Structure formats: structure tokens, C-alpha cells
């Protein structure tokens, strides 16, 4: 079992609809959870992070975390063609002496006009 | 958000030479930096974790004598690819951890595209 799993996609969503991206993780000791967006040939950029159970909203993006189910998701409302990218889920444990961040393989999202 | 820079952004070198890539956190101190490698259409692969003032921790399968990491200060980490070969051609990305209240955030540099001829 991979430590962080994502559906590779591609996930095709019509413009204006809600895109739902999912991620599961295996380490119950994980503390922080990140969503990154990566355009082809570019470095990942941080969209959101979440560390408490529940929902966290930022503009059109909502991150949802359920630690009991070891599940984190990202919702994108009013999807735009510019949202087409690969979305990476990352799960982290941070300590003063060592930190561990594990990335999923990413989900390719395509927003069709 | 915090800014992480990398230099150079692109480098082409001949097989057998060494290349140094710098990663700097510009507006925060980063006790931990990470080095990743990404091949086309693949996900990020963590190469090593670099803690300031100590030896880097390498992931399994990454040769520490080939990929030399030096984290000399709280704002600078370097990756040196020694005796580069064409199969080392890849997109190398560093990241640094900064704190934000109760949580940590990981910020990526823009990446360095290495081509070994």
C-alpha cells in the first residue's frame, strides 16, 4: 500500500462545475496535509494546507480532512480552464529533528469549456 | 507566501562534470530543506532531507556520494550532482519548511532543469 494514494486521472470536469479531488494516507501519525497545483514544466505551488478535522475554505477552494478515515479532499468550485493542472496531495509529519513529507502521485484535472 | 529561490534555473553540462544547484529561502529561516527530482510526467521523488548543520538524510536508492547536499546556513542549501551522466537529466526542485502559527508550510523553489549531454 502506498503511503499517500491519489487517483491519477485524468479527471474531466465541465467549466463552472465542482471538481472533487481525493487523497488517502496510511500513517495515522500524520499531522499536516497539503494540496499543491503543478502546471506542466513548473514547480508545485501551494494551494491550501489543513491540519484539523473538518473543512477549510479559501476562495473557490475547500479542503476537507477526516483523520478517522485517513482521507483528505480538495473541492474546486466554479472550475475554470486555468484550473487544469496536476494536483498533488502531500502528507507531513514535522519534528524538530526530522520532518517527513510524502507526496501522492498526483491527479490530472482537466476542465473542459 | 514565503519565497524560495533556486539557481540556476537551467543548466546544460557535459557528461562527467559536476553541477551545483543552490536553494535559498529569501524571507524566512528554514531549518529543513528538501530536494526532489521529477522526470517528465512523473510525480516528485524525494531525494533527501537536509537539516541545517547536520548531514542530509537520503532516501533509499539515492547515492549520497553522487548527490552531495550541504545545508550550511538557515537560508541556503546546495545540491551538487557529481560526475553527471545523461540519466541525471531531470527537473530538480528544492523546498523549505516555514512556520505559520500552529502549522508548517512547505514552499517550493522554481526548480532547476538539468540537461547532461
Structure in a nutshell:
The complex is a heterodimer of chains A (113) and B (117). Chain A is mainly beta and 113 residues long.
Mind explaining what this structure looks like?
- The complex is a heterodimer of chains A (113) and B (117).
- With 113 residues, chain A is an all-beta fold.
- Chain A contains no helices and eleven strands.
- Chain A has strands spanning 4-5, 11-14, 19-25, 32-38, 45-50, 54-58, 61-66, 71-76, 85-94, 99-103, 107-112.
- In chain A, the strands form two sheets. In chain A, strands 2, 4, 5, 9, 10 and 11 form a six-stranded mixed β-sheet that branches. A five-stranded antiparallel β-sheet of chain A has the order 1-3-8-7-6, with no helix packed on it.
- The N and C termini of chain A lie far apart (36 Å).
- Chain B has 117 residues and is an all-beta fold.
- Chain B is 0% helix and 56% strand.
- Chain B has strands at 4-7, 10-13, 19-25, 32-38, 45-51, 57-58, 67-73, 76-81, 90-100, 103-108, 112-116.
- In chain B, the strands form two sheets. In chain B, strands 2, 4, 5, 6, 9, 10 and 11 form a seven-stranded mixed β-sheet that branches.
- Chain B starts with a strand and ends with a strand.
- The mean pLDDT of chain B is 88.
- Classes of the chains: A mainly beta (113), B mainly beta (117).
- Chains A and B meet through strand 4, strand 5, strand 9 and strand 10 of A and strand 5, strand 9 and strand 10 of B.
Question: What are the main properties of this structure?
Answer:
heterodimer, A: 113 residues, mainly beta, 5-stranded antiparallel β-sheet, 57% strand, B: 117 residues, 7-stranded mixed β-sheet
- Gyration radius of chain A (Cα, Å) is 14 Å
Q: Overall pLDDT of chain B, averaged?
A: 88
Main sheet attributes: strand count, strand direction, barrel closure of chain A: 6 strands, mixed
Largest interface: A-B, 26 and 23 residues
Taken as a percent bin, the fraction of beta residues of chain B is: over 45%
Q: Helix and strand succession of chain A?
A: EEEEEEEEEEE
Amino acid at each position: 500500500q502506498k503511503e499517500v494514494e491519489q487517483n491519477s486521472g485524468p479527471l474531466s470536469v465541465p467549466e463552472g462545475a465542482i471538481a472533487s479531488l481525493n487523497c488517502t494516507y496510511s500513517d495515522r501519525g500524520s499531522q499536516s496535509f497539503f494540496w499543491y497545483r503543478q502546471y506542466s514544466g513548473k514547480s508545485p505551488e501551494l494551494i491550501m494546507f489543513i491540519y484539523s478535522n473538518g473543512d477549510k475554505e479559501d476562495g473557490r477552494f475547500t479542503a476537507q480532512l477526516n483523520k478517522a478515515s485517513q482521507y483528505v479532499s480538495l473541492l474546486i468550485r466554479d472550475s475554470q480552464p486555468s484550473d487544469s493542472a496536476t494536483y498533488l496531495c502531500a502528507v507531513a509529519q514535522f519534528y524538530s529533528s526530522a520532518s517527513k513529507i510524502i507526496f501522492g502521485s498526483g491527479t490530472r484535472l482537466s476542465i473542459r469549456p | 507566501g514565503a519565497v524560495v529561490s533556486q539557481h540556476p534555473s537551467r543548466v546544460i553540462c557535459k557528461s562527467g562534470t559536476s553541477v551545483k544547484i543552490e536553494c535559498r529561502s529569501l524571507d524566512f529561516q528554514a531549518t529543513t530543506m528538501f530536494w526532489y527530482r521529477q522526470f517528465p510526467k512523473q510525480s516528485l521523488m524525494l531525494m533527501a532531507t537536509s537539516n541545517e548543520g547536520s548531514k542530509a538524510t537520503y532516501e533509499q536508492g539515492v547515492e549520497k556520494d553522487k548527490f552531495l547536499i550541504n545545508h550550511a546556513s538557515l537560508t541556503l542549501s546546495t545540491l551538487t550532482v557529481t560526475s553527471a551522466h545523461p540519466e541525471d537529466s531531470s527537473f530538480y526542485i528544492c523546498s523549505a519548511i516555514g512556520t505559520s502559527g500552529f502549522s508548517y508550510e512547505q514552499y517550493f523553489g522554481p526548480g532547476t532543469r538539468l540537461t547532461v549531454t
